[in-house]
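I would love for you to help me understand the pair of lines that follows before we discuss the fold together.
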Amino acid sequence: SGLALGLALFMTYSSTFIPLFFCVSVLLTALFDRSRFAGAVATLALAGFSCLAFFAILYAVSGFNPVLAVMNSIRADHKIMGSFVMTPARYFNHSVGNLFAFLIGVGLPVTALWLGENLRNWRERKAGLGVDIFEASFLVSLLAIAFSTLYTLETERIWIFMAPMMVLPAARRLMAVEDASARGRLFVLCLVLLSVQAAAYETFLDTYW
């Protein structure tokens, strides 16, 4: 995981979402599943050490400095996007826009199923049946990153690597439908709606890139 994260950082700095997700997962494990806490901490520590070791070796071999690379990337982003004063209204608009751009970009049917699965998770938590750490960690991490002011929209493409974290709970929600024929019809309906949404995007959206 640490090596994969190190390689992913060369493609997009947005992959820093992954260690955020891991840290939130460990925190929620400490709160709701203490029996697995020690293993979660050990796994996180090993992944973190592997990632740092990767960059340390890279620096020793080639002189690549990840800190300077990040600073240069931030300067390039400011040059393209411009700097602005973050007023409360602008902060709210950007943060909510970040969240909804991603949710719509992943696909409205997937988002609907994902929300349904999170509601089920919440009901089970209230009933004392435990918490799905994966789903809860992603939800908390997604809200945190959306409201972090680190992004200025375009999250439907910048965060697209996070889509599997929504697709898996959405698939679980589909599989929870007991009637096989109803489950099949719902699956086909989701595919059709996703195809219509993709075709509509290709037809009506004209983007800079």
